[in-house]
Amino acid sequence: AQKVTQAQTEISVVEKEDVTLDCVYETRDTTYYLFWYKQPPSGELVFLIRRNSFDEQNEISGRYSWNFQKSTSSFNFTITASQVVDSAVYFCALSEATGSQGNLIFGKGTKLSVKP
Amino acid sequence: GAGVSQSPSNKVTEKGKDVELRCDPISGHTALYWYRQSLGQGLEFLIYFQGNSAPDKSGLPSDRFSAERTGGSVSTLTIQRTQQEDSAVYLCASSLRSRPGTDTQYFGPGTRLTVL
Fold this sequence. Notes:
Helix content of chain B: under 10%
Largest sheet of chain A: 6 strands, mixed
Low-confidence stretches of chain A: none
Oligomer: heterodimer
Number of strands of chain B: 10
Helix content of chain A: under 10%
Order of helices and strands of chain B: EEEEEEEEEE
C-alpha cells in the first residue's frame, strides 16, 4: 500500500538555523513521483519540488535542498539558514505512475516555526 | 498566467443544506483533482477528472458527494444534505497532461466549508 510518513509533527528553530524535514514513503510501484509542498498560514499549497523514482540526484535551489535515497525510501528536505518567512506546514507527497489516478498521497505534514 | 481559482473562499451553511463548490483550473490543464483537508484526516483525495470524465468516484466520502466537470474546464463539487463532519477545506488542483502522476499538480486557495 502507498503511504507517506512525516514523523516530525512540529519543529521550532531560531532564525539562521538549518533544519531538515524528514519524509519516508512506501510504494510497490517502480515508477513514482515525490513532491514537497509548502502551506503558509494563508492556506494555499505551494509546489516546491518534484522528483521521479529514476532520478536520485540531490537538488539544491537557493536555501532549499532535497536528499532522495531509494535505499531508505526517504526524500528529506533541508532549509539552510532558515528565515521567519519559512514558517509554514510542509507536506511530502507521493504519486504512482501506474494503476492510479495520479492522485497525491500526502503525509500528515510538519509544522515549521522559525523564530526571530 | 492565472492560477487555479476556487469559489467561494468561505462557506458557512446549516446542517442539511446543499452546497456547491467551484473550481476553475489553469487554462489548458486537462487533469483536475479535488482534495479535502481536515484536522483529523489530513489531506485526502476525493476525485479526479480527465477532461470531463471521472473514471473512479470511490474516493468520494459518501453518496451525498458528487462532482462534475464541463467543457474540460470548470468543475463543481456538490455536497447534499451537509453534515457537521463535512466541515473542512476543499482544495482543487490541476495538472497539464493526461497521464496522471507524471505532472505537477497546482493547487487553488481552497474553500473553507463550515457546517453548523
